[in-house]
């Protein structure tokens, strides 16, 4: 069980670092008027666990902060992820490992 949590923590650290990085990369590309990372990709990275990194990147790089669907959408993804974690964490063990 401990090994599973270590893998989950490593995965979440990696995907959040990636979410943070792609926000910065997309900001640089926007300034240089280059090919951009699709918004669907930015949301997908957040949805697969990178919401904290994506939100941090949004505000640190001041990227997509004028787009209401990012300002509201990213935190909604984070809240849904936190609810899912709480449900899994407090579920009886026999439900988790069916």
Itemize the secondary structure elements and their pairings.
Elements: H1 2-31, H2 39-60, H3 68-90, H4 93-96
Helix pairs in contact: 1-2, 2-3
Any descriptors?
single chain, mainly alpha, 98 residues, elongated
Q: What's the structural domain tally? A: 1
Could you name the ranges where pLDDT drops below 50 across 5 or more consecutive residues?
none
Computed CA radius of gyration, to the nearest angstrom:
16 Å
DSSP summary, beta strand count: 0
H/E topology pattern: HHHH
Provide a descriptive summary of the structure in words.
- This protein has 98 residues and is mostly helical.
- The protein has one domain (2-96).
- 81% of the residues lie in helices and 0% in strands.
- The chain has helices at 2-31, 39-60, 68-90, 93-96.
- The longest helix has 30 residues, at 2-31.
- It starts with a helix and ends with a helix.
Brief synopsis:
The chain has helices at residues 2-31, 39-60, 68-90, 93-96. By secondary structure, it is mostly helical.
């Amino acid at each position: 069980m401990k090994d599973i949590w270590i893998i989950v923590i490593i995965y979440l650290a990696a995907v959040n670092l990636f979410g943070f990085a792609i926000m910065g990369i997309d900001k640089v590309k926007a300034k240089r008027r280059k090919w951009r990372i699709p918004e669907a990709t930015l949301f997908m990275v957040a949805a697969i666990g990178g919401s904290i990194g994506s939100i941090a990147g949004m505000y640190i790089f001041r990227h997509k902060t004028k787009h209401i669907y990012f300002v509201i959408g990213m935190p909604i993804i984070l809240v849904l992820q936190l609810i899912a974690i709480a449900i899994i964490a407090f579920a009886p063990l026999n439900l988790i490992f069916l």
